[in-house]
Amino acid sequence: MTDKKIAIPEFDPQTAVYSPTESANFALETIEKIRTNSTRGVRLGIPQLDNYFAAMLPGQLCAIIAQTSNYKSGFMHFWERMIAAQLVAEGRLDEAIIHVSVEEPVEEQMYHLLASDIGTDAGRLARGDVQDWSKLQAAAVRVGQIPIWRIGDAICRPDDAQELYLSNMARSILELCSGNVTGIPVKPAAIFFDYLQAFPYDPEHRKLGEEKRRLQVREDLYRLRVAAAKFNCPVIVAVQAKQHLEGATGDLRMPGIYDGEESSSIAQRADRVICLWMPARTHPVGSWINQNGVNFTVQENMLMIKIAKQRGGLPAGQTFECRIDFARNNISTLTKKA
What we know:
alpha/beta; Rossmann fold; nine-stranded mixed sheet; two-stranded antiparallel sheet; 20% strand
């Protein structure tokens, strides 16, 4: 990686050519790694979805598409916590999750974990509403042991705030993984980015001209694919959906894979696409939705999760009706929808 950037490498035509024998042998090698678990993936941590959404493997890119206030960040925080539990259960104590955010300060990200630990709402902590300070302090000790490293800004260190565009994100990840931060290298089990369209313009990468915002999103997405390969882990990125959803019909407001704002390459480049929709954000609570064989009563904590894309011959297109426990930031599955 040149100059510690997630850069698009210069093209060498020979590296893109694979013989029939080489292709077959590489396929066998990859299947064997999956079969023996020497290539260790990460699961979603929702039992019914885990039977459908295969574990993500190193080098894969997943996009989480949702409109504003439809639980993108909450879903990512939940998934990170499930991966952390998986690492402990599987004895993968040399690995950690990395969370990169240009949306939430580090402190606000931690409200979710602290609230989950003591069974309160993160919003109450954000308002300073604490019933038992010693209980919260004990939770902070436990939460401090969860292997999630965070890259971003902190309210408590305002003088350290910098413009965190993708090249700078890469530098921070490389410093962490190399051991320069703590003296011990960190092996990423997964890297999360929140969120794609909020990434600042990267002045180091290339001059993109008049269409620089749309082209920046496309270039950043490709560079995230490169990052998944370079860091040898899955990369998960939150994606803002358009205000006008082309993939939604009638009362069903689930985004489609081409509803990512700014660029259709989001659907094309990602190995996996998960779409989220909270019906209570688009319809009154208690209203009845009945369309195309899908029928339900809108509830405040209802979350629809659609596995919209999976490469590699895996099934896709299924939607799962879930419930959110906001106090614990837990997601449970109720039923599958058409």
